[in-house]
Each structure stands twice: as C-alpha cells, then as structure tokens.
Amino acid sequence: MSQSAQKAVTQTFLRRYVNKETMKYMLTTHFWGPVSNFGIPLAAIYDLKKDPERISGPMTTALILYSGVFMKFALTVQPKNYLLFGCHVVNSLAQTGQAFRYVNYHFLGGQEAKAKEEAALIPVAKEE
C-alpha cells in the first residue's frame, strides 16, 4: 500500500472513530458500566473449568435472573445500551452453562460418577 493510501486510511479511521461524539460516549457510565460489568461473565466462563461441586445453585439462578432483568433494562433505556445488553447476554449464557453443570452434578449422577472415578484412581491396600 502506498504512503498516500495509508495516510487516507488513517485519516478516515480517525475521523470516524476518534471524534467528539465517540470521546463523549467513552467518558459516560453508558460505556464504563458495561465494561466493568464484564468481569462477572468472564469469571463465570473461567469457572466452567472448575469442579462442579463448588457451584452455588441459588447464586447461579440469581445471576441468570439478574442478567435477564438487565437485558430488558439495556433495551428500555434511551439511548439503547447495546454494550450492556451484550454483557448480560454473555453472562446469561455462561451462568446457564454453570446451571447445567450444577444440575448434572447434584441431580443427574455426576457426583456418583466422580466418586467412582476417584475410587478407581486410589489403589486399595490388600490385607495379608
């Protein structure tokens, strides 16, 4: 790409994304609220690899409901806050994954399967 073409692309990008309106948006809670809220779904995604015994069913249910309420809120406020909506969609999906793991472990035999797996790994001492 020629130097003049690079300059044109750079200027177009700057005009489109680095302007007064974008900067004004970036300094509001309409932006920083959802950005900081993304910690919740990121933690849930990270926890998908952890032991299902540690999942709290009531808390997972509360977080799914919380995300549902805030998805509705994000589309009700003016202007619509699509960043907040996306944050809570991701959180709802991650928490639903945790809920499936919780139900599988506590009610569908996951706990027994884990106990059998652990028993198979521990050698039994023979009595002589």
TrEMBL record:
<feature type="transmembrane region" description="Helical">
    <location>
        <begin position="25"/>
        <end position="46"/>
    </location>
</feature>
<keyword id="KW-1133">Transmembrane helix</keyword>
<keyword id="KW-0813">Transport</keyword>
<dbReference type="GO" id="GO:0006850">
    <property type="term" value="P:pyruvate import into mitochondria"/>
</dbReference>
<keyword id="KW-0999">Mitochondrion inner membrane</keyword>
<dbReference type="Pfam" id="PF03650">
    <property type="entry name" value="MPC"/>
</dbReference>
<protein>
    <recommendedName>
        <fullName>Mitochondrial pyruvate carrier</fullName>
    </recommendedName>
</protein>
<dbReference type="InterPro" id="IPR005336">
    <property type="entry name" value="MPC"/>
</dbReference>
<dbReference type="GO" id="GO:0005743">
    <property type="term" value="C:mitochondrial inner membrane"/>
</dbReference>
<comment type="function">
    <text>Mediates the uptake of pyruvate into mitochondria.</text>
</comment>
<keyword id="KW-0472">Membrane</keyword>
<comment type="similarity">
    <text>Belongs to the mitochondrial pyruvate carrier (MPC) (TC 2.A.105) family.</text>
</comment>
<keyword id="KW-0496">Mitochondrion</keyword>
<feature type="transmembrane region" description="Helical">
    <location>
        <begin position="58"/>
        <end position="75"/>
    </location>
</feature>
<keyword id="KW-0812">Transmembrane</keyword>
